[in-house]
Design brief:
Helices cover about 25% and strands about 25% of the residues. It has about 350 residues and is α+β, with helices and mostly antiparallel strands. The strands form five sheets. It has an eight-stranded mixed sheet. Strands 2-7-3 form a three-stranded antiparallel sheet. The chain binds flavin-adenine dinucleotide.
Length: about 350
């Protein structure tokens, strides 16, 4: 087995190159992704235990909404049905437990106490190391897909090497539309997403776990979310609303001044304790959105031994273990496909439905 990556595992252009990613079980009414996240968490824990590294932090995940929020009501129900531990919290309880946050429009919340944060970059790099020590070959190389039909026998790297294989899997995130332009240019839409790390006051633990969980504010139109300070990188905050179209190879990853202003306005209103905190680090990453946020995990329609796995749509990281199980079962044991992951289900208009 050979693993190739153009820029290296969890590089700074890759979506998996971020410091941390949320693992939450809640997906509103969507049982499929709840089930996958439930399957993934013990596998992440197992990988941590096996490698002796802490890739999961059980910080808890707090959903913030209001009484009219049907997504949150369904989420509470689905988590209950799935046996996921969750607590319903009034706005008064939220204020009492986390006085550093001031969400005036929030009337209730749902806490997933067993969920939390995954260490993204370091876990992916550890995974590649683990694979290599178990006999997988790894090489840094950019590949192209030749214009053939039927069966793919070989691919070429940009360095001129030829690689033959029986089965090819392309899990190339936001680059998939470049590799398969005719198929995916209108089906995967990379967008620019900005992330901020803020410096808490010296000696303060108010923005660290267990004093602050991950939280996602559903009452604000820009869908802010935040992660506690882990590994002293700072309090991480970002907005889930899709940004502008983005080229993962060429575009610069510098935060726009208008975004800094918007962030400060948000902090002044909702997290006054952080209003004057300096921005100590920023990241510009890309989502690779399918039309509605469902993943694309399918056989290529014209190449019988080529598989495509991507369309993480801003929520894919946590699902790596479940996705790996699903894809290998599809390839090796021909298990029936999940229709939502098929190419046929991917429309060309952008209409987000999975959050
Ligand atoms: C700001 C931000 C926040 C997010 N938050 C969360 C979260 O909280 N929870 C969550 O679950 N998910 C989250 N996500 C989504 C998650 O990070 C992605 O779904 C996931 O990392 C995608 O992984 P991937 O392996 O498909 O793509 P990537 O990590 O982008 O990897 C693609 C790889 O393909 C390689 N490649 C590309 N073209 C070629 C080629 N021609 N030849 C060889 N190699 C190639 C690249 O070098 C790259 O390393 C977030 C994403 C962003 C951007």
């Amino acid at each position: 087995m050979l693993l190739l990556d153009a820029y290296g595992p969890a590089n700074s252009r890759a979506s998996s190159g971020g410091e941390t990613r949320i693992i939450r079980m809640g997906y509103g009414p969507d049982e499929l992704y709840t089930r996958w996240a439930q399957r993934g968490l013990p596998l992440w824990r197992e990988f941590s235990a096996r490698t002796g590294k802490e890739f999961f932090h059980q910080a808890g995940v707090l959903w913030l909404g209001n009484d009219a929020d049907a997504y949150l009501k369904s989420l509470y129900q689905v988590l209950g049905n799935a046996g996921v531990k969750r607590e319903s919290l009034t706005s008064a309880e939220i204020r009492r437990r986390w006085p550093q946050l001031r969400f005036e429009d929030v009337t209730w919340g749902v806490l997933e106490p067993d969920s939390g944060v995954l260490m993204a970059r370091s876990s992916v790099q550890a995974l590649v190391g683990d694979l290599v020590s178990n006999g997988v070959e790894y090489s840094a190389a950019e590949v192209a897909v030749p214009g053939v039909r039927g069966k793919l026998t070989e691919i070429k790297t940009s360095a001129g090497d030829v690689i033959s294989a029986g089965t090819f899997v392309f899990a190339c995130g936001a680059w998939l539309p470049k590799l398969f332009p005719e198929l995916l240019r209108q089906r995967i839409f990379p967008t620019r997403q900005e992330v901020f790390f803020l410096g808490p006051p010296p000696g303060s633990a108010a923005f660290r776990a267990p004093n602050m969980p991950v939280w996602l504010d559903r009452t604000h139109p820009d869908l802010p979310y935040a992660l506690p300070d882990i590994d002293n990188r700072g309090f991480k905050i970002a907005f889930d609303r899709h940004g502008d179209a983005f080229d993962p190879d060429a575009d610069e990853r510098v935060i726009a001044p208008s975004s800094v202003e918007r962030l400060h306005a948000y902090l002044r209103q909702y997290i006054p304790a952080m209003a004057n905190a300096p921005i100590i680090e920023t990241r510009v990453c890309q989502y690779e959105n399918t039309w509605n946020g469902d993943f694309l995990i399918a056989r290529h329609p014209e190449l019988e031994n080529v598989w495509i796995a991507g369309g993480g749509s801003g929520h894919g990281f946590k699902h790596g273990p479940a996705l790996g199980e699903y894809l290998s079962a599809r390839i090796l044991r021909s298990v029936p496909p999940e229709p939502r992951f098929s190419l046929a289900a991917k429309q060309t208009e952008q209409k987000r439905a999975v959050y």
